[in-house]
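Working notes for the structural subgroup meeting. M.R. asked for a predicted model of this chain before we commit to crystallization trials. I am recording the input and output together here so anyone reviewing the notebook later can reproduce the run.

Input as submitted:
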Amino acid sequence: MTADRNGHSARRNSSGYEDYTERVWRGEESLTAHLTGAFTGEELIRIGERTGFFPAFANVAVFDTGEGLVLVDTGDVRTARALHTAVRSFSGDPVRTVVFTHGHVDHVLGTGPFDEEAEARGVPRPEVIGHSAVVDRFRRYEETAGYNAWINRRQFGVPALNWPTRYRYPDRTYRERLTVRQGALTFELVHARGETDDATYVWVPELRTLCTGDLFIWNTPNAGNPQKVQRYPEEWARALRAMQRLGAEVLLPGHGIPVRGADRVSEALGDSAALLESLCEQTRSLMNEGLRLDEVLRRVRVPDGLLAKPYLHPAYDEPEFVVRNLWRLWGGWYDQNPAHLKPAPEGELAREFADAAGGARRLAERASVLLRGERPRLACHLAETAALAAPDDPEVARVRAEVFARRAAAETSTMARGIFHWAAAESAAVAEGTDVATELTRTAAGARRAAGAIGVGLVTAESTAEGTAGSTAEDGAVGGAEWPAGEQR
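Returned structure, recorded in token form:
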């Protein structure tokens, strides 16, 4: 869609998007349309006279300062050209500044076309600004590209995924706060540790507009992610409270739809903070009692009603993983089980258990009984032990594949679903004499994921876990939003 000189089609597009965001806020529609790019096009969504919004899996905010443009994030490499086209439909003014809210690859790989444009015109490239830890992140990504490729293949079910190794480093960094004035607008950059250690939120006081980056993502805060580096839930909650005190009238998140209206912005930030604060307070209290991690996980409870909020569904991360991350942050990796301190090799231990039970197949048979009895967590332990004891036994492998496939279907979060799907595919490959990639693509949904359409679970209020931090929705009442590969977070 191309706008005429008066921007009529842009306004129509923005109007349709605004209606959609209202339905999402009320819980009448999911984020699927937004995440799958239904509103990503050749134009930005207009939010006021000076603000444009690029709605994609990873959003971009664009500000017209009157003396050039300022971009907050640039999205991922796949949407880079579309973003450039949309920005140019918004304004022909040069991009003066780009702010990276953090260094995740789905937020920083769309800068290239603007650099190329500047070089072609013989003018300075946009100045990229980010927290000093963004530089450290990029260096770590370069050094651990192989590891990041593997964990993201498993997390998203994309066996051919490759991790990027080239990044646009910031031209200017800061540590605590930085004020950037450009034309008629002021951009207050504030550092906060939350999902990452390099996070920045951006406050534009003249427009009463807040860009949160991934400090607000229309999901349970991604403060646990079992395969990624340390998260900081307590500091994240403090940052949410600080943002809440700003009195913003527009919130432009790193993921998900904008929030408009001071009351709604305050509610969304406050509820997100309350969830993290409760998890932190409960976990710390139980740790202070000297309990094992296992007991802490079973006792921490999510405050009633919070996970049912449309912006707090546990569709990407989940509270159980947040508690584990807090334990790692405050207590280290030892879970207080002395057998886990210097354990025997897993395979050796599994063979002992199998011998005691009468063989690996007996363990697998018991796992099937437990699965039928709606005890999937315990079934996973026995199926995994049986497979470690007899890794080449096709009958054991079939049971393990069934257990983890059923477990994946019942989970709400991307983190759990991805790991369980991968485990099921590993065993299915043993049972069928194939490979993981083949087994991941046997279903239509798996084929889409493997081709790059990565899924995020979208839960309904009925399937949302409201009990202990370790509870999950066992009925599999999960919708799915998918987006192309590249959002390895």
